[in-house]
Structures are given as C-alpha cells and as structure tokens.
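Summary for the funding panel

The consortium committed to producing paired sequence-structure records for every protein in the target list. Below we show the first two records in order, beginning with the earlier of the two.
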Amino acid sequence: MRKPISVIIITKNEEKKLKECLESVKWAEEIVVVDAKSEDNTIKIAREYTDKIFVHEWTGFSNQKNIALSYATNEWILSLDADERVSHELRNRIQDYVLSTTHDFDGFYVKRDNYFLGKKIRGCGWGKDFQIRIFRKSKTTITNRLVHEGFKVDGKVGKIYESLIHLSYSNFNEVIKKINHYSSLEALEKFTKKKSNIFTIIFYPPMYFFQHLILRYGFIDGIYGFFISIMHALTKFLVQIKIWELQRKS
C-alpha cells in the first residue's frame, strides 16, 4: 500500500510561477501552502489545488518552512519552492519507490536540473546539484540560516537521480533583485564571523568568477555560463561590501 505524502511550499507574490508548481504535484495526498501576505493572485491560484493555505507574516526562509512543516499531517514530506516543478520521472520514482516499497531511508537527496533564462545549465556547479527535498517529518529538522537553508535528516539518506526542475531566473531584472536580496541576507549572517577588507572586496569577486567559469566548467554553457559566473562574482562583491558596511556601523 502506498504511503501518503505532504507537499509543503512557501510563497510570497508567486502568481507567475505557482500554478505550474502546484500542477506538478496535484497527485499528492496533501498540499500545504504558507503564504507571507502576498499582494497578487498567489492565494487565489493556490486555492485551485488545496484548501490548506496558511497566511503568516514573513519571518525568514527557515521559519516559514518550519511553519509549513508543522501544518503537514503526513510522515513523508516533499518540500518545493514556487519556481520548482516535479518531473514525470520524479513523480513516478516517488510513487513507485519512496512511498510504495520497503526501504530503510529516512530522506532522499534529489537531483535538480537548474535553468537560467530558459536554458538548462550543465556547468558552473549547477549540473551536480543534489538537495534533500524528500524526508520523514519525524526525522528531519531545518537548518537555522538566513539564506540557503536546508534540511537535516537524522538517519540514512538516499539519492534520487530523477530530476526536480528548477526555473531559477527568467529575466535579468529577476537576477538583480535576487542577488541584492540574497547578498544582504548572507552579509547579515556572516558579518560577525568573517571580516571584510580591501583585499576581500578586490580579490574575492574575480576568484569566484574564475571558479565558476573555469574550475566548475561554466564555459560549456557558453554565454549563459559567462552570465552565471558574472552573477556569482557580483554576489560575492555585494556580500563583501555589505559586510564592510555592517562592520563599520557596529
């Protein structure tokens, strides 16, 4: 007998992306959406797929996901972001193996296929992206980070190669907004632990550009790999100057 699964999704003004995400998991027994007071049609779209929609003031990625997890009623959980979609192959793998067979895993790393401006990226480290997204609720906690939070499973973790589709950036305006937002969170998280100075501000960005374009084979994606490498360099530059600014103020 197949075990039930709960899908958890946190949202904030995701009307452009949420429908496809929800459509890809409408087979799940339960879908939980925790919305941070969206000002667009996010909640209206969510209501087409679930009645388990909870509105909470934004308190950070980790806290919002913890809230979503608390509302989930099934032991097995699939965590998604609004810009992610479950492929047909991944759905079949979840239904036919994770939920339908006897195994000793408490969670699974899932391979993500990352897209940038509509193109699937193979280099820049993006082509080897595995994240824990399927897990037993009773065995899992969420790391307490401001950005790049993740799930920690107290038990055996397997690996699934059927892909989760991640449509990370659809235009450059989105790129700039996310870089600015995420770099602020990363700087706030790091400024008491790491020092920023003229050396880190000057040399870290080109180091990260070289790392992603050359060492992580970003060049195999052509102009897209170049843009992504620039994006990582710009993020690192903003993190460093924002850490410097925070240190100066403190």
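The next record, for a separate protein in the list, is shown here:
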Amino acid sequence: MGPLHFFLGVDVRRHGDTFLSQAKYAEDVLDRARMTNCKPAATPINTKANLRGSTSTPSIIAYSDADWAGCPDTQRSTSGYCIYLGSALVSWSSKRQATVPRSSAEAGYRAVANAVAECIWLRQLLGELYIDIPSVTIAYCDNISAVYMSKNPVHHQQTKHIDLDIHFVRERVAFGDPRIVHVPTDQQFADVMTKSLPTATFTSFRSSLTVGLPNTVT
C-alpha cells in the first residue's frame, strides 16, 4: 500500500526523523465546533481558573416503559429505558421483546427488568472506578401492576407464566436496591423510546434526555 502518510487522524511526515502531526484532525474538530475563526490560546486552560469538582451526591435514576403488543404483525412489545447518573443521561435502549407478553403488566415488568439489569451493571462499573453511589437506585415505571409485582410476592403467584429470570427484580428489591416507583405517564421519559408521541410531549421529553437541535447545541 506504500508508505504510511495518514492514519486515524494522525499525519505522518518523513523528513529526517519521522514526525507525527494531528493538525488536520484538530482543524476538523474546530470546524465541526464552528470555532475555526476563534482566537488561539497559548494554553488549553485558563491559568487563573479555579474549578470545583461536583458537590452533589451522585445517584442512579432509571425510567422504563413498554409498548404492549405494539407490533401489529407479531404482537410483541417494545421495551425502552433511559438511565441517568445525576443529571446526565448515560444509558438508553429501545428493543423489541423476545416473547409475546400476555398482559401489559408482563410487558412493563420485562422493561423494568432490563432497566434494573443495566443499573446493576452501571453500579458495578462505577464501583470498579472507585465511585461510590450511596443512594438507592430509583427505577420509575408508569405501570402500577408492574410496580406491585416487584414488591408483592403474593402477586407473583398469579404471574407464573413470566420467565423465572425476570424475577431477579423482586430479589433485588428485597435487598433494598433498587426501589421501583410509579411515575405518571406524562413524566415517563422512556415513552420516547417505545411509541409515537404528540409533538409537544416529544419535544419536552427530548429536552429531558438532553437532546437538542444542531443549532441549539452549545
């Protein structure tokens, strides 16, 4: 293929000792950020700046939702969740469920299970990075029956058709983390992952997910 000249944003120049440059990559970044005409600075950070690390206690909050039998061909549901670390959206998903649920409660419970599994993984990852999350994970769900199923073992006896691996949510709730909490539908941000929404609702939820139009991103 000949001598190497450019690879993964690195410009390779050979005159005497080999010289590696990322000037082209930096120019592309400045162009995308619309900062091409900005004045240069001698150092990347103001020497007089005094930044404070965050003082708020970090927390994990999840929103989960399911569109029961939303597929007209297979009658399968779509699970969706969005997970926040503090005020930052760090994980989200929209995925068709593998089996056909027999009730909206089952569909909602499976969505909760997916969100809880992701929250457990995120907490373990943060633990490996020595980031302690002292507060209990809060998982919001707008299906009241699914909330009851996560707390009431008697109710579980009426739902034996749900796969046993889904019931790990109940075990985790019994351990004290997470807490499954009901949230009104008009505050269920995960709805944007599972169904079509009116313009006003979609715009509001999109903003809550820290997603904006290109010309509004700063």
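Regarding this second record: The chain has a mean pLDDT of 80. The two ends are 41 Å apart (CA to CA).
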